[in-house]
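RETRY 2/3 - previous attempt timed out on the joint model. Re-submitting the same 606-residue input unchanged.
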Amino acid sequence: MKFEVTILGSSSATPVYNRNPTAQLLNCNEKFYLIDCGEGTQQQLIKFGLKASKIDFIFISHLHGDHYFGLIGLLSSMHLNGRIKPLYIFAPQAIQEILALQFKHSDTTLRYELVYFAIDPEQPAVIFENRDVVVETIILNHRIPCTGFKFTEKKRLRKLLVDKLEAKNVPLECYPLLKRGADLTLPGGETLLNADYTTDSAVPKSYAYCSDTLFDVAYFDSIRNCDTLYHEATFLHDMLERAKETHHTTALQAAEVAQAVNAKKLLIGHFSSRYKTLVELLDEAKSVFPATQLAIEGTTYEI
Amino acid sequence: MKFEVTILGSSSATPVYNRNPTAQLLNCNEKFYLIDCGEGTQQQLIKFGLKASKIDFIFISHLHGDHYFGLIGLLSSMHLNGRIKPLYIFAPQAIQEILALQFKHSDTTLRYELVYFAIDPEQPAVIFENRDVVVETIILNHRIPCTGFKFTEKKRLRKLLVDKLEAKNVPLECYPLLKRGADLTLPGGETLLNADYTTDSAVPKSYAYCSDTLFDVAYFDSIRNCDTLYHEATFLHDMLERAKETHHTTALQAAEVAQAVNAKKLLIGHFSSRYKTLVELLDEAKSVFPATQLAIEGTTYEI
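RETRY 2/3 succeeded.
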């Protein structure tokens, strides 16, 4: 099953050096989840050959513009491009008023349904679940209410050892039960132990997205043992005071988070416009947490 | 005096084929006027090496998103980049509410003053005037209230023939009067006729911007004899019915407007996403009005 994230924007605050404000596209089993939507996200999707029409779920971490100013344009283009299937938005409550006001003044009645889910910025919660994935909020510490999102794959069914089942002439209608872990008694009375005829599916993986936040142990429990941690790393550590003042994190701190929560991999992004090149941010993070990568726009990272 | 326009976006409705939604930057005597501001305008400014900080006046034709969704991001970035001088916005009244709502939810208090001027969508009017230029609205015919803008250079002062004035020992303090067209009587009693000691300045030029509109003679008087007419040309003429339905213009019609109002040059833009290449639109317009050019992003056109 595919579980991977493509970076659409990696800049903090303002676009610069061909870096765009934050947006990421998560592909979980060929369903597409957009995480944040800075200005120009729809242009980035086109640039990287990704289809906006495949996105059914959008998650907005907070209402600083570099994380959502592209949303109204994306939704409008979906409308103009003929979308009819519903779109689900998980965001701070006010997003509904902001979008509605703009649709009103453009005299736009969407052809498709927008379904809103207002995120509680105080309590971590499971906010979404389907056959593939569970999404939980992460309560971050920013200047305005801000939540991250942890996407955890669902445990898949057991894999059948089909050759062995066929040798026993096990009827096809028994396969679903076996996939779910049941033992099987054949008509002749023989019992097939599930463990002998199936193997376990892969261990589910998780992706934690921490958009904008002060370094704060309060959210560590929500992201513990994740496979890939995306964490903002707006500044180098020599700018720690500025990071604190603006409720952001340094590259060194992002690495410390990854280490503390026992993440397998770290992806850093949300780079300040003061950094034309990013290698120093990467080196700083790697000095603490070697399995760090830079979030590079247009690049897809396996979770 | 410089009087030129740089195209930042030439696409209608949705961005496509590396074409962005509408925005133009007018340079009149090194003062900068932004006309419309589709999503990604701030990125386009950066891409073409133009400084957002130099823009003091923004004109928004109407509240369809492809003409203003980039405004909130541009204003936010100006704030983050330290702007303190006021910014003047000429737009439909509701823009104030739309911007205020978003600034409220991002807890942003701008460091600079936003000065709003609400455009009357019913009556053409002079809405702005400074030493260089006069701006008048053009009442267009679109699905929602929509105004174009006509920028007309102010007549410059007369040019002094300095060699002749020096030969007559005319004191410097008399030069301003001469520039304004006065004759001069010297202390000895000799009268210098203005026409002998000055020449007329260049004839003022005008730029008419017609963003989104149905072909409609009602606005022709507002743009008569302009030097450069920018006119939307969303479709080829074989799509005339679609153009009427969506209150847009075909390339042929844009050329007919230019011809009817006696424009010197025509610039066409706002191209539908159905046209990957634009040569057919250009050819169609030129068949009626040869002095037509395509609005190409990143290109600067002398008015």
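Chain B touches chain A through 35 residues (CB under 8 Å). Closing ticket.
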